[in-house]
Structures are given as structure tokens and as C-alpha cells.
Amino acid sequence: MLALLAATFVLVAGRSSSAPGQEAQATRFVCTSIPLDADPTCPVPAMPIQVGSSQEQDLRATVMQLRETILQQKETLSNQKETIKELTGKLSRCESSQMEAKNKGSRRKLFDRTHGKDTMGDLPRDHSKVVDHLGRTIQTLKDRLGSLEQQTRPDLSNQAFPSDLREQLQRKLGDLENQLLNKVSELEDEKYLLLNETAAHRYKTESVLNALHERITELEKESSGFKSPDDFKVSLPLQTNYLYAKIKKSLPEMYAFTVCMWIRSRLSPSIGTPFSYAVTGQSNEIVLIDWGKNSIELLINDKVTQLPIDINDGMWHHICITWTTRDGMWEAYQDGQLRGTGENLAPWHPIKAGGVLILGQEQDAVGGRFDATQAFVGELSHFNIWDRILASEVIRSIANCSANLAGNIIPWIDNNVDAFGGATKLPLETCQERLVSS
Questions:
Q1: Considering 308, 363, 374, 406, which has the largest number of Cβ atoms within 10 A of its Cβ?
Q2: What is the C-alpha separation between 253 and 236, in angstroms, rounded?
């Protein structure tokens, strides 16, 4: 049965006959099946099977369409790369602007002494402008991203577009879109952080400037009417137990000192107490006093010596007193001239630190318990203390107005002296005017 149904495949090949002088036409090979008992010879030449022209044209058209589509997609991808590059550049510039704003904000130093002025207007750059710029840039990126999706996205639904290339483009566009959205989100977060940081910085700056304004106002009030910080005098017009001036600084431990001052007494014959220094356990650590029928006395650690100076004539005088713990030696100068020396005044006793220094009153307790009969009435100025003994030439130059030397321990400075009970700080006559009145 199988033998009856079997067929033999015979390949019939050849060239078609042609007329003499003509070139033989090309032929095609065709395979066909014949029964086993049939004659395999072909009495009739096999006819060539030609491909229809319409089918070939369709194939060519399809190939051209695919080629043109691929070229279009390449051009679209090139345009997308340029657009993405442009957007990436904008993002980089935004990040650079934000970092520059932060760096500039940390280097700002502000100071303004004018009352009623908006101090924040002096800032070299307003952070709000940076924040607004970031907001506009973020919105621009969002708009460009939407335009990119609408204008440059290829038609991936075209069936003629290769599926693998279509999927690859979709993935790339998705990744780029996610990157742009992440950048936009980061910029928005940084925008809010910058807003908070700007507000905190403004509040802190305003607080510092307000404090500076208050301090400047206080200093201006204190120095009002004085040509320089030491160009003033303390006036003590009444003999009371509540009118005095206080030196804000205290003394350190000292083994020698020089005290100099300009003084004009309004009392006679005694002048009272030009100054006193009291410490815990000893109210008479250093005292210069003249009361009753006694001469001017210098007390150190409650030990006393009389000084050969006379300044109760109502005129300006310059006095200096030196002392050293070594053998308790002392010197007294009036108007630049040495008036007397001595020794054995509280020898080997160091001046104690941390006490209270009062002008115009004698202290019976640290900082208080004044006695009106011992009060000084007059003017004091240029009260300076050094922790060493000044040479006589230096003292003479200070007294004759050829030098103005401030004390290295207690200098005569406006903001270092407080007046109480009616004592006042007034402008001081020039040094030459004081010499004329002496």
C-alpha cells in the first residue's frame, strides 16, 4: 500500500530552447512528485516559475518604510539627547547657585550703627531672591519636561517600529523622566531648607544687631561731651556719706605700686578721703586721707605714715605716691617734685587682690559704711595705678603735661568709672589750663 502511494521526487533542470543566434534564457528548477511506475522522463520542458512583480514591490516598499522609520527614530533620539543635555546643564547651574548662596551666607558680617535703619538691607545678597530663582527654575524644568514628552516622544505604537527598539526607547525615556523628577524633587527640598535657614539667619542677625545698637547707644551716652575716653573729671560737690565714685576694676595682688591723680579740693583745712581700697578682712588696705587736724596720711594694711604734701588751697595739683613691699619704702610727689620719702610702711606685705576701690569716701566695710566727716569735696581726674614704681622723670613729665601715661592696672577711662549719689562726670579742662590754675 505504501509502495502504491509513494512518490518519487525528481528534479527537472535545463534551459529553454532558443532560436539560433539567440542567447538561451535562464530557467528555474522545480521539484515535483510522480508515481513509482510512471516514466520519469519529461517530454515537455519545465516552465520557469517567475515571482510576481506586485509582491516584490510590496516587499521593497516595506523595507524602505522600515529603513526610513529607523532613520527618523535615530534623528529623534539625537534631538532627545540634546534636550536632555540642555536640561542637565540647567540643573547643574541651579545646584551651583544654591551652593554659592549657602557659602556666601556663612561669610556675611554685619554691623550698622545708624538708628532706625533696616540693617538687613546691608546684606550682600538677599536669600529670598535665590529661593525665588530656584522656584522659577524648577517650574521651567517641569514645563520643559512636559514639552519633551509631547513633542519629542516617538510614536512607539507604530507596528512597523521594531519591538526591541521600541522597548529600549521606552526604558531610556522612563529612566530620564525619573532622573529629572528626582532632580526637581531634590531642588524643592533644598528650596524649603534654604527658606528655613534664611529665616533663622535673619532672626539671629537681627538679634545681634539690636544688642550692638543698645551697647553703642550706652557708650555714646557715657562718652557724650568728652573729647576722648580719659578727658573727664569726677565732681563731688557735697560732704555726705552717699556721694562717691567707684572704679569698676579691682586690683590684683601687688608687691609695689604707683598711684597718680589730678586733684582739686574744695575743703579746708582738711580735704577728706580722695580714695580708699578695701578687701575682705581689711577695710584699710590702701587709703589716702586727710581729716581733722592731721596731715595727709597714707595707710597700707592699716599701717600709717604722714605725707609732706599740701593741696587744700582750692587749686589743681598733680600728686603721685609710690610704695614697695621691700622694706616698706615710699615716695610722695606734688606737681612733679619729690616732697618726701620713707620706709617701714607695712614692709613685706603684698597688696591683696579682689577688693573695692572708691573715690571720695573712706570705707569702714568693703564697698560701704561711709562717714560724711571723712568725705572728699572737689574734683578728681586721671586716677591711674601701676604695679611698679615709676621713675621720677616719668612722674615729672606727667605733671608738666609733656606726657599722658595710662595706668597698666587701673587706667582712667570713662567706662571704667561709675558715679553715685549725685557725683557727676564732667568735661575736664586741658592740662595747660590746670597748670595755670595751680
A1: 363
A2: 29
Q: Rounded distance, CA 191 to CA 97, Å?
A: 11
Q: Are the C-beta atoms of residues 319 and 261 closer than 8 Å to each other? A: yes
Range of the domain at 124: 73-222
Instruction: Answer yes or no: is 281 within a domain.
Output: yes
Question: What is the C-alpha to C-alpha distance for residues 268 and 154, in angstroms, rounded to an integer?
Answer: 111
Residue 208 shares a structural domain with residue 280: no
Query: Are residues 216 and 245 located together in one domain of the fold?
Result: no
> Which one, of 417, 422, 412, lies nearest residue 240 by Cα?
422
pLDDT tens for each residue of 154-201: 454 554 445 666 676 777 777 777 777 777 777 777 777 777 777 777
Residue 98: the pLDDT is 62
For residue 299, list its beta bridge partners: 287, 304
Residue 271, all three cell numbers: 580735704
CA dihedral 190, 191, 197, 201 (to 10 degrees): 140
- C-alpha grid cell for residue 120? 538687613
Whether 300 and 396 map to the same domain: the answer is yes
C-alpha to C-alpha distance for 267 and 276, rounded to whole angstroms:
18
Q: Are 253 and 384 in contact (CB under 8 A)?
A: no
E strand intervals along 81-239: 232-236
CB 370 within 8 A of CB 345: no
Q: What is the C-alpha separation between 177 and 181, in angstroms, rounded?
A: 6
Do residue 246 and residue 116 come from a single domain?
no
CA-based nearest residue to 296, from 328, 326, 263, 327: 263
Q: What is the pTM of this model?
A: 0.51
Per the structure, the count of domains in the chain is: 2
Indicate the residue type of 170. Q
What is the end-to-end Cα distance of the chain in Å, rounded? 162
Residues of the chain with pLDDT under 70: 1-53, 55, 94-95, 97-135, 137-138, 141-142, 144-166, 168, 213, 215-227, 292-293, 438
Whether residues 218 and 275 share a domain: the answer is no
